[in-house]
Design a protein that fits this description.
Layout lengths: L11 E5 L3 E5 L5 H23 L7 H8 L3 H13 L3 E4 L5 E4 L8 H8 L10 E2 L3 H24 L3 H13 L1
Antiparallel strand pairs: 1-2, 2-5, 3-4
Helix pairs in contact: 1-3, 1-4, 1-6, 2-3, 4-5
Amino acid sequence: MEQAAGKNPPRLPMQFPQIGVIEITKPVVAWQHMAVNTRFATGVHALVLLAAEPDVLQTSEDVARKLNTNPVVIRRVFSLLQQAELVESQKGPHGGSKLARPAKEITLSHIHRALDAGGLFHSVTFSGANHAKVSSTLDQVFANVSKAVEKELAQTTLSQLAKKAAKKAHH
């Protein structure tokens, strides 16, 4: 049974002894969600670098070199951070980026919201009896975990993180 490209994705039936057959009806694309996590970590590292020299415009090339990554990655991250008003950027030969406000006023939660395209967890729709109840319960667990993560991220400022990282570097 061949499927035409772009048409209904194939169904993937999976047999489980306790609950029967579950059929995956939507494609699961894990790499999209991994990129969100990488983007957040990259953004935090880049902002720590900007916080270390708050009055200096730093180019994406300079930041990328310090983080051993591609300048395009940094430009994409900075673009999202600029939209969230966490970073100010200037174009041109003497351009670059710097924090839009003091590091003590930027929380990890601000950064996460700016760089996260979706939630931490993503549900998959399964066909079959009782799966709606499992999905609903799982969605509630995901919501609770997401709230706890958001609360934790809101308690740490960029300034605090930079200070803790500097202390660990000296030990």
